[in-house]
Structures are given as structure tokens and as C-alpha cells.
Specification:
Helix 1 packs antiparallel against helix 2. The protein starts with a helix and ends with a helix. The longest helix has 28 residues. It has nine helices and 15 strands. It folds into two domains: 147 residues, Fructose-1,6-Bisphosphatase, subunit A, domain 1 (Fructose-1,6-Bisphosphatase, Chain A, domain 1, 2-Layer Sandwich), CATH 3.30.540.10; 113 residues, D-Maltodextrin-Binding Protein, domain 2 (3-Layer(aba) Sandwich). It has an eight-stranded mixed β-sheet with strand order 4-3-5-6-7-8-9-10, sandwiched between helices. The chain has a five-stranded mixed β-sheet with strand order 12-11-13-15-14. With 271 residues, it is α+β, with helices and mostly antiparallel strands.
Length: 271
């Protein structure tokens, strides 16, 4: 086993442990009587659970991988010189979290040379864990059950599939409501089971496409390796595989061209 493989495996294992520990920390807040929050400058909510969960992950990384860089939603960037960068989102779906909806998750991505190579999604309130590393497959654990390979669906057309997104308002904010309407018209079922849970649904074969009109890098970093290793795709609205373009599409690969026929014209018009 090469040193680089050892490096990847040790970080993947650490990422899964951190996601579980940080996500379970948020459950103490989630199950409390009230979930207080503040509004950031962009009007999105942040809670003490967000902050404590990210601090937990940062402390583990600083101790176990002190030369690695870190960027997180709540505490910004920390430089490193190993070539690896951890990308952390302690609570993806904070609006669900503060509303008592269990479809929020903890996200961890690991980037090297500009590409995300490790991804972990943990849905603490449901006990669902999904993780992947480039070349190692995608794996899904439900509660205490053994890990099983995660695979996208074999559905070939939106007319037979499930389309999910985070919230319709995000299409209004980007002025691309016709994109949502056309996806909804073509899909057999449309639901707003969004944020990272929507991508988990696609990667485990329960939905065919998940779309976000706006994303930050900590929303996207965990998703690309998971979607790709599960046999699907994670791209921007023009079809480029990337975590850096501020938008995202996760598909089962079979419906990608159909989805891009709807999203690409809107993305090109905005360029």
C-alpha cells in the first residue's frame, strides 16, 4: 500500500469519525426544547450547535493532521502545507435544524490539488452515514447496520423520477424560476427534501436529481466524490464537474443530459 493511499484512508476514517461526533453533538441541541439562533449578514441562521460542531472537527484535524489546511463555514480559513484542505459544514440545512426537521446533516470534504477526493454526509437525527473516497467507492450505513455499497438509480428519464431541491425561493433569488418549473413539469415527483439530504437520496438510488441554484464550497465539497463514486455526477449548471462554481446538480448520470438541457441555457444566459 502506497503512502498516498495510507494518507487517504487515514483521513477518510477520521472524516467519518468526526462527522459522527460533530453530528451527534448537534443532536443535544436539536432535541432541546428550543433552538435559538442568530442571523448572519446574509440573513441565514447560525446556532451555537454550528459553532461547537465545527470547533470539535477543527480540534481533531489540528491534532491528527497539523499540516493540513482547513476552511469552515463558521470560522473561515486556516493555512497548511501538506497539500490537503479540509472543508467543513457543521450543519448543512440549518433552517431545517432550527425548525425541528430532521433532514439536516454534517458535511466534511477533503480537497487535494483543487479537487475534492473525500466526502462524508452524516444525518444525525436519522442515523444515516454516507461516505466516499476517490477510487474507493461510496458506502452507506443506516443506524448500526453494516456499510453497504451506495449506488444511484437506473431510472433513465425525469418522467419516471424524483426531483428534489432545497427551496423554491432560491430559484427566485437567482431569477431562474422557469428552470424549477420545467424540472417540476418533467419529473414524476418533485419534493423539497433538500440540502445535503437531497444528494444522499440521489447517491443511494432514491431520487434521480438534486439541484441547488446557489451553493458555497462547504456545501459542495463532500458531494462530488460521493456522487461520482456512487455512479452518478456532481456538476455545475453547465455540466462541469466542480465544487467551486457556486451552484450544483447531483444526478444518477442517466438523466444528466436531460437536466442540463434545462439548466445550461439559464447558466449561459447569466454568463
Amino acid at each position: 500500500m502506497s503512502g498516498s493511499t495510507d494518507d487517504l484512508n487515514s483521513r477518510l476514517e477520521a472524516a467519518c469519525d468526526m462527522a459522527r461526533d460533530a453530528g451527534n453533538l448537534t443532536l443535544d441541541f436539536f432535541r432541546g426544547e428550543t433552538t435559538s439562533f442568530e442571523r448572519k449578514a446574509d440573513d441565514t441562521p447560525v446556532t451555537e450547535a454550528d459553532r461547537q460542531a465545527e470547533q470539535l472537527m477543527r480540534k481533531v484535524i489540528e491534532k491528527s493532521f497539523p499540516r493540513d489546511a482547513i476552511v469552515g463555514e463558521e470560522f473561515g480559513q486556516q493555512s497548511g502545507n501538506s497539500g490537503y484542505r479540509w472543508i467543513l459544514d457543521p450543519i448543512d440545512g440549518t433552517k431545517s435544524f432550527i425548525s425541528g426537521v430532521p433532514l439536516y446533516g454534517t458535511l466534511i470534504g477533503l480537497e487535494k490539488e483543487g479537487r475534492s477526493i473525500v466526502g462524508v454526509i452524516y444525518i444525525p437525527a436519522l442515523g444515516e452515514l454516507l461516505y466516499a473516497a476517490t477510487g474507493c467507492g461510496a458506502w452507506y450505513c443506516n443506524g448500526g447496520a453494516p456499510a453497504q455499497a451506495a449506488r444511484v438509480s437506473t431510472c433513465e428519464a425525469l418522467r419516471d423520477g424524483l426531483f428534489v431541491t432545497s427551496e423554491i425561493e432560491s430559484f427566485h433569488q437567482r431569477d431562474v424560476v422557469p428552470v424549477f418549473r420545467e424540472l417540476q413539469r418533467r419529473a414524476y415527483i418533485t419534493r423539497t427534501w433538500g440540502d445535503c439530504y437531497g444528494y444522499l437520496l440521489v447517491a443511494t438510488g432514491r431520487a434521480e436529481v438534486m439541484i441547488d441554484p446557489a451553493m458555497s464550497v462547504w456545501d459542495a465539497a463532500a458531494l462530488q466524490p460521493i456522487m461520482e463514486e456512487a455512479g452518478g455526477t456532481f456538476t455545475d449548471w453547465k455540466g462541469t464537474p466542480t465544487i467551486f462554481h457556486g451552484e450544483g446538480i447531483g444526478t444518477n448520470r442517466l438523466v444528466l443530459d436531460e437536466v442540463l438541457s434545462i439548466t445550461r441555457p439559464a447558466a449561459e444566459a447569466a454568463s
